[in-house]
């Protein structure tokens, strides 16, 4: 079955935003085993939109459009699709009710008239509720082909795709696709690839594909079978083989579990409480941890000690340490972690201090130099890193490496106790 | 003049990478005043590539392709373009020499045979040297149209575009385009759209287009003229008109300035230091502020008080306040901000406390209820919000609204002083 994507929005043609929706949807379609040969981007123009949909329908079975479903005059995707599919627009009472509820719950009293445009749906189309916004998704079926309309904002589109569109597309398929993501931290991309070269060489069903993420490597195992049970049976031995090869470097085999989530789980199982003490990442590590619902069971507080004064006042880092070794040093990182655990009464404290740039580097301490330390049961482990790239990239790597350090310290302390 | 983009690579169709090249090239073309109505993505398949180039040439003056110029068998962009343009491939001695030099300088002694494929160029094409890799760029001209081939890796493509392709395209253009982004915070998308409906209705040159961001609305003004000065002259009255309509809700007219950046600038100008006191956003606000290089001049520390105990211990929130009103209350938000400024000795403290969900809500205090307070010169302003959507969305909106609150408090205190 062939699928193709049309991303809608003049902001894409102007380069105002990066098309992350296309990457997400492509990955999901690949997971579903759908073939994709074309993607296109069209601006907010009804005529060109209709033409693009027409062309896509001529060569593909499923056409997925994202963007252009909002309340403004520029939002014309639905109008264009309705014309091409010959399904005139009509108000959907259920959607109108949901929109009214959405605004009511948001505490917005005056709903401007243009918002009701979002309740207009092509007659005969399947309405897909939007749990995170006002524009519903739509599935328009005709002559054995489907046109799927999704809202543009990723935080509305992705949950909608996962909840409603993925199962819809899987049902259209003759064979069931199942996959599993084996997530690895603490090993480099090329090392992992070398270690699985033989498995990739002889892959048939299931297949194995590596994906490099910042500071992590994910391996996707995908199997095709007549039903889910059979597909899962094909996946199992491959997971076992990878566990044999990578052991504790595998932090999860759950598609949705993040590294932060897995670390919080380890802490919770051991009934350990956590504090973060950040300098150059300025709260990013705490934010990453609190992305996870229920983090409060483990994570009690975070200290962002951006200035030297704050490091002294909030974390009792010695004045002489800052003077003699500098804020970016092994010694400061150690004191931050050790004192962070002590002053807050936490079992564990992880600290990060470094030079994120673009300024502030020197020959001795260049941009990208980052120290991190983990204090657990009064034992402090410290690491030195030299990251490359932009401020954003250095901060992002620091967060992932800090979580990796935290994880390895917890696992190591298990070994010590047993 | 019309331009269109073709991004080449099966990795894009599989969602393995995000198409940042398209965003970069689109932005550059918009800057050049070129009209772009289409973008497409094609895999590494010669036939489909040739078809895509053919279609693009039928409707555009310039076709820019990126990717597929490397040494492997999968790299077929040049082959497809050469066929469509009827310019047979021939070895270019200059390029062969550059490739040999590149490998020599990289310390690589054995150059595999397939690398010399990169020295093959379409006869009559303009060769564009690659300063950061081995595959040269190419400009193929025929019948008043141009096909431009660029390497896929961004670190090779972008410098090549800036150095050679931008000037080439600028010479082809009769008119210059200029644009300006007016950034608004604290007003809803539909409200803003209603307020500028008349301007959009009668727009010609310059044009006006709204873009909704989380908690913000951006308005792009774009003008075409014979030169930059004339174009800027056309933009000026529109900016003035928008300032008249939206006043202080406009936080920037600088393309690259973020809300966090503009708030830090306001604080810096007034020599005010800032502390953050976060609960439900768990460090996101501090992280957003420290995204900005040089934030340390203003932002000294952040306290992530996730537990009640941390609120008491680090921020001196009264036990009775937490008991009688709860952690998510106006009173707690106020104490967090007021005490946060006091205990850290900062001029300003902004606090956030709320229920980000998915659990933890009640009928009285539902998920999405967020209080935030700003303490400035001992005056505390508090706001109550009811956000909708996922945990992620509630946290993201909280951060943007907190920055907006911070901004309005700073501006208000200016008024008081004068």
Q: If you had to describe this structure to a student in words, what would you say it looks like?
A:
2 copies of one chain form a homodimer. Chain A has 418 residues and is α/β, with parallel strands linked by helices. Chain A has 3 domains: 2-172, Molybdenum Cofactor Biosythetic Enzyme, Chain A (3-Layer(aba) Sandwich), CATH 3.40.980; 176-252, Alpha-Beta Plaits (2-Layer Sandwich), CATH 3.30.70; 259-417, Maf protein. Helices cover 42% and strands 25% of the residues of chain A. Chain A contains 15 helices and 17 strands. In chain A, the strands form 4 sheets. A 6-stranded mixed β-sheet of chain A has the order 2-1-3-8-7-6, sandwiched between helices. The first copy, chain A, has a 5-stranded mixed β-sheet with strand order 14-13-15-16-17, with helices on both faces. Chain A is globular, with a radius of gyration of 25 Å. In chain A, 48% of the residues are buried. At the A-B interface, helix 1, helix 2, strand 2, helix 11 and strand 14 of A face helix 2, strand 2, helix 7, strand 10 and helix 11 of B. Chains A, B: This is Competence/damage-inducible protein A. Chains A, B: It comes from Hominisplanchenecus murintestinalis.
